[in-house]
Specification:
The chain has 455 residues and is of the alpha/beta class. The protein folds into 4 domains: 90 residues, GMP Synthetase, Chain A, domain 3 (2-Layer Sandwich), CATH 3.30.300; 179 residues, 3-Layer(aba) Sandwich (Rossmann fold); 75 residues, Helicase, Ruva Protein, domain 3 (Orthogonal Bundle), CATH 1.10.8.60; 91 residues, Chromosomal Replication Initiator Protein Dnaa, Chain: A (Orthogonal Bundle). It contains 18 helices and 9 strands. A 5-stranded parallel sheet has the order 6-7-8-5-9, sandwiched between helices. It is globular and about 65 Å long. The protein starts with 5 loop residues before the first helix and ends with a helix. The structure holds adenosine-5'-diphosphate and magnesium ion.
Length: 455
């Protein structure tokens, strides 16, 4: 193995950074990439330090693949990349931050990045989708698109909250088309992946192939479209792809967490195009639907689920279907582990835990910690009386996120922020909302934080 001279490594690092900057733009570069420091390049292994745990997680998920990719372009021996928290690297950082979980290797196989599209979940079929009032329109629309050979509405736009079955329906459409007309070419992928592919194509000056790939399909399906917002060149490219496909009478299916009208950061012409076809929403589940889903899932199990347990679960877990499934799985796992039947008592016991855990899942303290880390201020500033902008703004963002992500009331939130009045919290929420509409970089930052905290 060739050992590299330090100058080589330094020059490579400069080039890698320059490319990241060109690809991801100035705002992302400043917030996320500039603070990276190169620690070591040794034996095909690159180690990079970031100032906070928050950044480590974010950089790892959002830029890890690309970083490794760029490094291996520079040096073909490099095969893995590690991102570690190293207080003191990059921007200023709170001195008391633990180094816990510092080493975080990521290993990326090249074919993960090469392939277009994503794998389909074999469980996500129409047969396995339970319908009720809240989702019957979306279901019917999805079926129609999947089963008809001509394009009836274009695009089909499915939207709804987290865990309500958008991805399930999209996979179901893809499966059905595969089964019925295997010659039709389908691409299913997330908006993030679309963006990534596009940026990669730009980088390799390969946009002709990119365009051809996407424009030659019969069915294009983009999941979680909301993540495309704000990225202008990707939106532009998507817009052209969209038009080209519609012109050729090819089917487009899109999912998002909001309706076209409510999506933020989408250009007007794109927004209006998205509403051209059929827009169908998935409403939050009703008690009846939850019972139906539980019964259907219970059928496939070896273990008997008493009706009382089904009712209890349907009453208690109301957030979304993903949580409902999770609760059922947990109860079944616990019962089969100890070899006892599922009972209401055991369910209540397990659920007590689960409900407490989900209550605890996002706490105000956690939000404060993440936000403080993100803005590089001390955690104590969240409750301090200082009003300078550098601490007041992050504090407002944290209050805003506390309102959005927890069920705490305004007075309760105020108390956690150094005993502030509920009107202060209200003001913070309004202010952040205002800034989000006025400043897209700020909006993106808040959105990143929200996703980071929720994940
Ligand atoms: P989304 O993409 O809207 O966040 P998913 O499609 O990933 O949600 O659904 C979350 C989980 O709930 C999946 O396991 C999915 O199979 C299940 N699910 C959602 N809705 C239904 C339904 N109506 N019937 C059966 N399973 C469902
Ligand atoms: Mg989904």
């Amino acid at each position: 193995m060739k050992t590299l001279l330090d100058e080589d490594v330094a020059a490579q690092w400069v080039r890698v950074r320059a490319r990241l900057r060109a690809e991801f733009g100035e705002a992302a570069y400043r917030s996320w990439l500039k603070p990276l420091t190169l620690h070591e390049v040794k034996g095909g292994h690159v180690r990079i330090g970031v100032p906070t745990d928050f950044m480590r997680d974010w950089v790892r998920t959002q830029y890890g693949n690309r970083l490794l990719d760029l490094w291996s372009d520079e040096n073909s021996e490099i095969c893995d990349l590690e991102i570690v928290t190293a207080p003191g690297s990059g921007a200023a950082t709170a001195e008391n931050r633990p180094l816990s979980g510092g080493a975080a290797p990521i290993v990326v196989a090249e074919n993960n990045i090469e392939g277009f599209g994503a794998a389909l979940d074999p469980r996500f079929t129409f047969e396995n989708f339970v319908t009720g009032k809240p989702n019957e329109l979306a279901f019917a629309a999805a079926r129609r698109v999947a089963e008809s050979s001509s394009v009836t509405f274009n695009p089909l736009f499915l939207y709804g909250g987290v865990g309500l079955g958008k991805t399930h329906l999209m996979h179901a459409i893809a499966w059905q088309i595969c089964r019925q007309s295997p010659e039709r070419r389908i691409i299913y992928l997330s908006a993030e992946k679309f963006m990534y592919q596009f940026i990669r194509a730009l980088r390799y000056k390969d946009t002709v192939a990119f365009k051809e790939q996407f424009r030659s399909v019969d069915v294009l399906m983009i999941d979680d479209f909301q993540f495309i917002s704000g990225k202008d060149s990707t939106q532009e490219e998507f817009f052209h792809t969209f038009n080209a496909l519609v012109d050729r009478n090819r089917q487009i299916v899109i999912s998002a967490d909001k309706s076209p009208n409510d999506l933020e950061g989408i250009e007007e012409r794109m927004r209006s195009r998205l509403g051209w076809g059929l827009v169908a929403d998935l409403h939050p589940t009703t008690y009846e639907l939850r019972v139906g889903i539980l019964q259907s899932k219970a059928e496939g199990l070896d273990i008997e689920i008493p009706p009382k347990v089904v009712e209890y679960l349907a009453h208690k877990i109301t957030s979304n279907v993903r949580e409902l499934e999770g609760a059922l799985n947990r109860i079944v796992a616990a019962a089969s582990l100890v070899g006892r039947p599922v009972t209401l008592e055991s369910t209540q016991e397990i659920l007590h835990d689960l409900l407490r855990a989900s209550d605890r899942r996002i706490t105000i303290e956690e939000i404060q910690k993440r936000v403080a880390e993100h803005f590089n201020i001390k955690l104590a500033e969240m409750s301090s009386a200082r009003r300078s902008r550098a601490v007041a703004r992050p504090r407002q963002v944290a209050m805003y996120l506390a309102k959005q992500l927890t069920s705490r009331s305004l007075p309760e939130i105020g108390r956690k922020f150094g005993g502030r009045d509920h009107t202060t919290v209200m003001h913070a929420v309004r202010k952040v909302e205002e800034l989000r509409t006025a400043d897209s970089t700020f909006a993106e930052d808040v959105e990143l934080l929200r996703r980071m905290i929720e994940s």
